[in-house]
Amino acid sequence: MAARLLLRSGLRAAAACRAVRVSAASRCMSTGGIPTDEEQATGLEKVIMKAMRDGTDPYNMMKPKGYAGSKMDPHLVPSITNKRIVGCVCEEDNTAVVWFWLHEGEAQRCPSCGAHYQLVPHELPH
Ligand SMILES: [Zn+2]
């Protein structure tokens, strides 16, 4: 008899617990729940979140990818116009920078070391 009473009270407690969980969940669902950052972001913040999720870097905040500098894998130089000044530190220990204009089109070589650079169009986010 005591075991039955204990079993019933245990089952009631479990059912009550389940009911509380369901009611709490339904209460959240009825109000729409707590929106995530992406759901409530608007404007520029939303554009930035989408770009970061897609793996792009709208503000060049991440470390640039390393390129070999060869003809097949040139250094990519983003530009909002059709040309850009590029400074090449030809060797790691050099103290002088070789500056030259990089124009739109095929990859160009650094006049000193011969590393290849290519201009790629880049749009400002706003
Ligand atoms: Zn160079």
Distance between the termini: 76 Å
Mean pLDDT: 78
The 3D shape can be described as elongated
Output the helix-strand order.
HHHEEEEE
Fraction of residues in helices?
25-40%
Q: Can you describe this structure?
A:
This protein has 126 residues and is an alpha+beta fold. The protein is built from three helices and five strands; from the N terminus they run H-H-H-E-E-E-E-E. The chain has helices at 2-30, 37-40, 43-54; strands at residues 75-79, 83-88, 98-103, 108-109, 116-121. A three-stranded mixed sheet has the order 1-5-4, with no helix packed on it. A hairpin with a 6-residue loop joins strand 4 and strand 5. The longest helix has 29 residues, at 2-30. The chain is elongated. The N and C termini lie far apart (76 Å). Zinc ion (ZN) binds next to loops.
Tags for this entry?
5 strands, two-stranded antiparallel sheet, alpha+beta, 3 helices, 126 residues, binds zinc ion, elongated
Brief overview:
This protein is α+β, with helices and mostly antiparallel strands.
Topology record:
Blueprint: H1 2-30, H2 37-40, H3 43-54, E1 75-79, E2 83-88, E3 98-103, E4 108-109, E5 116-121
Parallel strand pairs: 1-5
Antiparallel strand pairs: 2-3, 4-5
The structure holds zinc ion.
